[in-house]
Amino acid sequence: MFNLKAELGGARRGTLRTAHGDIETPFFMPIATKGAVKYLDNSDFKQLGNQILLSNAYHLYLRPGIEKLNSFGHLHKLMNWQKPILTDSGGFQVFSLARLRKLTDDGVVFNSHIDGKETFFTPELSMEIQDAIGSDIRMCFDYFPGYPADYDVAKKSVYLTTAWALRCKQWHDMVMQKRSKSVRSLLFGIVQGSSYKDLRKSSAQQLLAVDFDGYAIGGLAVGEPPEIMYEVLDNVVPELPTNKPRYLMGVGQPEQVLEAVKRGVDMFDCVLPTRNARHGQVYIRTQQDGLVAQDLSEIYYEKITIKGAIHDLSELALDPFCECYTCASGYSRAYIRHLFTIDDPLAKKLTSIHNLSFYVQMMAEIREAIDYA
Amino acid sequence: MFNLKAELGGARRGTLRTAHGDIETPFFMPIATKGAVKYLDNSDFKQLGNQILLSNAYHLYLRPGIEKLNSFGHLHKLMNWQKPILTDSGGFQVFSLARLRKLTDDGVVFNSHIDGKETFFTPELSMEIQDAIGSDIRMCFDYFPGYPADYDVAKKSVYLTTAWALRCKQWHDMVMQKRSKSVRSLLFGIVQGSSYKDLRKSSAQQLLAVDFDGYAIGGLAVGEPPEIMYEVLDNVVPELPTNKPRYLMGVGQPEQVLEAVKRGVDMFDCVLPTRNARHGQVYIRTQQDGLVAQDLSEIYYEKITIKGAIHDLSELALDPFCECYTCASGYSRAYIRHLFTIDDPLAKKLTSIHNLSFYVQMMAEIREAIDYA
Asked: Which residues of B193-227 are buried (b: 16+ CB within 10 A; e: fewer)?
């Protein structure tokens, strides 16, 4: 399933096999939260060279819902996207977005943030939703304790996360064993434990005992300083098996992605490229010959504000050295600034394409650097 | 400049030569009011087979303004669009959108609808703005009397429209005679006169005496019943020379476009396809072998509401017989409905592409039908 092909220091280069094709690692996933990446469609993803999309169980549970997903034939068909999809379990949204009513060892009662409808969300329900979505990589329903978290709360999050991971694994195994191997999904456990070394270690060990297809590191990129993030990685990664992919959820800024790659992480997702794009924040490479240092020591980039008056008459592409659709098609900074000024949606489309391309290209350069070494 | 090639009843088939290339008539212009067609970009226009865009002097005067347009090098360069552009004079917006302060024979004082800034808008200023835009086809600054209009008001609109048309013509001739023929823009006069036959006739005759490159029929599609619109066409078109293109401004629904073509109109623009698209109203052909009857007797289409629950599980393309990007790429009605439900901008992009394609395709079929006859 995961084939490790090369290493450079702690950084890894591999291939992850899924029911919808192989993915070269390390990779970055654009976020199609509700089954769409705002402003972009499949031809844009194709041009980007994007390998996989991430979608979200909580949002798709609310709309269109399990029944419609099952009737229609899963998300790949609905989105018209035939490459891999990873789904988040809904855990993070239940604890951050929904109106939480009650937490028990069995699951969580919440009210929908859309219409207030009450749901008893359980590990089994999360699995059922992800199965209706038909995602290739699925995440266990985990308990995110918030940040910062007291030791006791963090400890409870590890306990519940493991208990729920077991139930997810049982549900998943039971369903998948009836299906042919080629269409089976992968199931990942999520390491919790906040910033506490012993809890993180214990969480990892407990999940390893259950045995998953991959391991995610959750509860990061939630407001903690980068040093804490890196410290957690330094503590957790050595606990994880080398023959399974590692996924750092919700991270992050380009330099954080690089730091995590150097610590042995293989998979990433983050709202930053698209969210920044929609606010006119654009990533620009500062070295003509690439974003990433050959030896993975640095990422050469800066972030510019395209809404600034300085770009008023600029004939430059967003990034003259970028080969994305936006930059290669002749759109000037002056025009994109004008589009932001008149609040035309085309502004956000063009910058979203560029910023996602920046991340996809960065990952391609990281893979090249590891291959080359 | 205008080469009339074939006729079918009153309908005409021709080629209009502009500084940015030839346009086959009759044709429809998507509206890039402020220098962008919401959600769409040049690769979408290319796929559509779109020949020309329409933009607006009033909006581009406010943002980015004459100075920036001149400094940057005109709208074709700003938009990265190398085919023809037609500009409206700003007249309609000054009388409908801006806060009007004072109307004199010399021009109009208005306050910007954005920041309240006061401008004295004159025929010369309209020409100057359109020259900064660098449009291929320019419209004279006209006086739109509103609808319905009393006879006296309509009469005044004809008088002012002619007086201003003369001033536009003088400005345009003076500027263009210094430029080589290949880059000269075309200038169109606009026939006003509301629903009054004698005023429409008089307006047309006065403008003909000034001699323009083409003639527009203004003040229609502003709430009048279609019969009034057709009656005005029946009255005005016979007054216009056969060797000049005729432009029915702001029209309209597909059957109105067909009716106008049959009455000898060559050029159209309308917000309907894109506005309807953004509200989930989609044009669907009802005959597999085409939209337009070979003899121009009928247009076979209906309009469906893609937000309707009936499309919930529909695997159909918006229009299974359509070859536009949206329909040919495998996007289902179920998915587009889902995108509207979650309010994702991709919904509006996909339906806008389809509806514009419907209009562009309808015009292509109309041209074919006339050629074929």
From this structure: bbbbeebbbbbbebbbeeebbbbbbbbbbbebeee
Q: If interface means Cβ-Cβ distance under 8 Å, which residues of chain B face chain A?
A: 34-43, 59, 63-64, 68, 71-72, 77-80, 312-313, 315, 325, 329-332, 334-335, 338-339, 341-342, 344-346, 348-350
Cβ <8 Å between A78 and B338: yes
Contacts of A38 in chain B (CB under 8 A): 344-346
Which residue numbers in chain B have pLDDT < 50? none
Query: Residue-wise over B266-282: b if at least 16 C-beta within 10 A, else e?
Result: bbbbbebbbebbbebbb
- In the annotation, is B269 catalytic? yes
Q: What pLDDT digit, counting tens, does each position of A129-151 carry?
A: 999 999 999 999 999 988 999 99
- Chain A residues closer than 8 Å to B328 by CB: none
Kindly report the nearest CA distance between residue B48 and chain A, in angstroms. Answer: 15
- What percent of chain B lies above the pLDDT cut of 70? 100
**A170-225 pLDDT, tens digit each:** 999 999 999 999 999 999 999 999 999 999 999 999 999 999 999 999 999 999 99
- Chain A residue with minimum CA distance to B75: A335
Neighbours of B96 (CB within 10 A): 13
pTM of the entire structure? 0.96
Domains and CATH numbers, chain B: 2-269 (3.20.20.105), 277-372 (no CATH)
pLDDT at residue A53 in the model: 98
Interface test with B, best of A335, A349, A353 (most B CBs within 10 A): A335
Name the residue in chain B with its Cα closest to that of A34: B342
Catalytic residues of A: 88, 269
Instruction: Say if residue A253's pLDDT is above 80.
Output: yes
Mutate to test the interface with B, among A33, A41, A63, A353 (most CBs of B within 10 A): A41
Nearest CA in chain A to B71: A313
State which H helix or E strand residue A81 sits in. none
ipTM over 0.90: yes
With 80 as the cut, is the pLDDT of residue A98 above it?
A: no
Which pairing describes strands B267-269 and B27-29: parallel, antiparallel, or unpaired?
parallel
Q: What are phi and psi of A51, to 5 degrees?
A: -95, -25
B207 contacts B213 by C-beta, under 8 angstroms: no
Do residues B329 and A80 lie in contact, with contact meaning Cβ atoms separated by under 8 Å?
A: yes
User: Can you give the three-state secondary structure of chain B, one letter per residue?
Assistant: CEEEEEEECCEEEEEEEECCEEEEECEEECECCCCCCCCCCHHHHHHHCCCCEEEEHHHHHHCCCHHHHHHHCHHHHHHCCCCCEEEECCHHHHHHCCEEEEECCCCEEEECCCCCCEEEECHHHHHHHHHHHCCCEEECCCCCCCCCCCHHHHHHHHHHHHHHHHHHHHHHHHHHCCCCHHHCCEEEEEECCCCCHHHHHHHHHHHHHHCCCEEEECCCCCCCCHHHHHHHHHHHHHHCCCCCCEEECCCCCHHHHHHHHHCCCCEEECCHHHHHHHCCEEEEECCCCCCECCCCCCECEEEEECCCHHHCCCCCCCCCCCCCHHHHCCCCHHHHHHHHHCCCHHHHHHHHHHHHHHHHHHHHHHHHHHHHC
Closest chain B residue by Cα to residue A75: B335
Q: Give the tens place of pLDDT for each residue, A32-70.
A: 999 999 999 999 999 999 999 999 999 999 999 999 999
Per-residue pLDDT tens digits for B253-264: 999 999 999 999
pLDDT for the residue numbered B24? 98
The closest CB to that of A335, out of B79, B313, B339, belongs to B79
